[in-house]
Design a protein that fits this description.
Helix content: 55-70%
CATH architecture of the largest domain: Orthogonal Bundle
Number of helices: 22
Number of domains: 3
Number of strands: 7
CATH topology of the largest domain: Hypothetical protein af1432
Order of helices and strands: HHHHHHHHHHHHHHHHHHHEHEEHEEEHE
Length: 499
């Protein structure tokens, strides 16, 4: 069987980046002859990729330990100073990553949120799972490592995820599922499992956004998962856009899981802020002033008094707002098809997906012949009715996996995903005949139309850029018009024969 996209990614995943501030401190530490294991362990334990590297090493078959090591401090002591120095120095020098100008991933924000989750997990574990306090810290630190891995290994595609999240206000995992077909939770869990950590580490990471699944997890993964879920809500409150929902989730699940007997939401956030400030210098974290955070917490206190009664109502209202925004941003108001901006977003997405996974892709640009005559004869309302009817017919005729958009005016764009050129020609010829025989009734009159179609094919080994692919399809459309309209033409330069 062919490996899944995520499995292929894991097979070729390079080492993960480390934050420059941490890397420099490691370099200073390893150069200092007086550096001891405790000091180095303290630095390493605060860095997600390095923590994974050290834990992966100590849990490898080379050491064959009878039990899994889950504490970085313990791992450092077992490995010894010289070994840890080499690993840390080599990893830092090789993978010191500077953010690219065309990449929107916020490295500083990622580390700040990771450290905050680790601190909150430690605070929670002290009260509800004291035997695994350090495990809780490591879990919080590593739980979003999948996002870092995705950005490191497929930055162009992950930029599409970031754009999807920004445009639709959805969560990272929702945007990842839409764009990539899998999530950072799945990848993060698989990565942690590769490092040799036990099930109670990777299982919570794989499901930490889904409290119902956490409750069904095995022990102690269920308790660690609950701790991680609460911690992620604290992070979301401080840095996200859904503060009311995060507060509601914290209050609801602390009570549901019986944690509220020892933990109060506002107290937890105050303690988290105190601990974050203590280690902010080591991490070069850019924190807001104390007053800004304290005002957030004070506002949370007031909000928590009333939040339970309207939790569900706000959740439903937010979901409606998100769906409404998606339609407004991505859809054409007249036809309900995707608009120009959305079409080029999907073109970018499907182009890189086809390129990475060696899939065929056919791009179609279509144009209604002599549409000005339709508007002149029946008026613009008649032309609008013709466009709406045509859009409905396209939606009926194409697969749900295909993308059809109103590219502008009377021009349409179609992406036939995973479709070889021979199959694409048959599909488009069927569309051409459908338009040719379509009868649109408007105010007792009949509107008839024909369309010209230009195709360009992206085969798995192609070196065409997406801009070149679009240009070839546009040239094929021009050729169809030149040959008399109401026909399908394929651009020969994209790998097909002109028809």
């Amino acid at each position: 069987m062919n490996p899944s996209p995520m499995e292929s990614l894991l097979e070729h995943l390079e080492n993960l980046p480390t934050l420059p501030g941490i890397a420099l401190k490691i370099l200073e530490a390893v150069k200092n002859e007086k550096t001891n294991l405790d000091e180095l362990g303290k630095i390493l334990s605060l860095d997600p990729p390095l923590s994974g590297k050290i834990l992966g090493l100590i849990n490898s078959a080379f050491y064959s330990l009878p039990v899994k090591v889950t504490s970085v401090t313990h791992a450092v002591k077992l490995l010894g100073l010289n070994t840890v120095k080499k690993v840390a120095l080599g990893f830092s020098l090789l993978r010191l990553v500077k953010p690219k100008a065309d990449n929107d991933f916020n490295y500083a924000e990622f580390w700040r949120d990771s450290v905050m989750a680790a601190v909150v997990c430690r605070l929670l574990a002290k009260d509800v799972l004291p035997s695994m306090v350090e495990d809780g810290f490591t879990l919080g630190l590593l739980h979003e490592i999948g996002r870092l891995a995705l950005n490191q290994s497929m930055s162009k595609q992950y930029n599409l995820v970031l754009k999807e999240r920004k445009d639709t206000l959805c969560d990272y995992y929702e945007a990842e599922k839409q764009v990539l077909g899998f999530t950072h939770m799945e990848l993060g869990g698989a990565l942690i499992r590769q490092w040799g950590l036990p099930e109670f580490f990777y299982e919570p990471v794989q499901i930490h956004h889904f409290p119902d699944l956490i409750e069904a997890a095995s022990k102690p993964a269920d308790t660690l998962g609950k701790i991680l879920f609460i911690a992620s809500q604290v992070v979301e409150f401080f840095s996200g856009r859904k503060k009311s929902l995060s507060l509601a989730a914290m209050k609801t699940y602390l009570a549901k899981w019986g944690f509220d007997r020892k933990i109060q939401v506002d107290t937890l956030m105050e303690e988290a802020l105190l601990h974050i400030k203590e280690i902010s210098d080591l991490f070069d974290l850019q924190l807001e002033d104390d007053g800004a955070y304290l005002r957030l917490i004070e506002g949370a206190r007031n909000e928590l008094i009333h939040i339970s009664d309207r939790f569900l109502q706000e959740l439903v209202a937010q979901q409606k707002r998100v769906e409404s925004l998606k339609d407004e941003v991505m859809r054409d108001g007249l036809t309900g098809l995707f608009n120009y901006k959305s079409f080029h977003y999907f073109l970018n997405l499907e182009y890189y997906r086809a390129k990475r996974y060696l899939l065929p892709l056919t791009l179609v640009i279509a144009d209604i012949d002599h549409f000005k005559l339709v508007n002149d004869t029946f008026g613009h309302p008649g032309g609008d009715e013709a466009l709406r009817c045509l859009a409905d017919k396209f939606n009926e005729a194409l697969r749900t996996s295909d993308i059809v958009a109103r590219h502008g005016g009377e021009e349409f764009g179609i992406l036939l995903t995973e479709t070889p050129i021979a199959d694409a020609v048959m599909v488009v010829e069927r569309l051409r005949r459908m338009v040719e025989t379509l009868v649109v009734e408007y105010e007792g009159k009949v509107i008839r139309m024909t369309m010209s179609f230009g195709l360009a094919f992206f085969h798995p080994e192609s070196k065409l850029s997406k801009e070149e692919l679009f240009k070839l399809a546009d040239q094929a459309l021009y050729e169809a018009k030149r040959r008399g309209r109401n026909r399908v033409c394929v651009n020969a330069d994209s790998g097909g024969a002109v028809t």
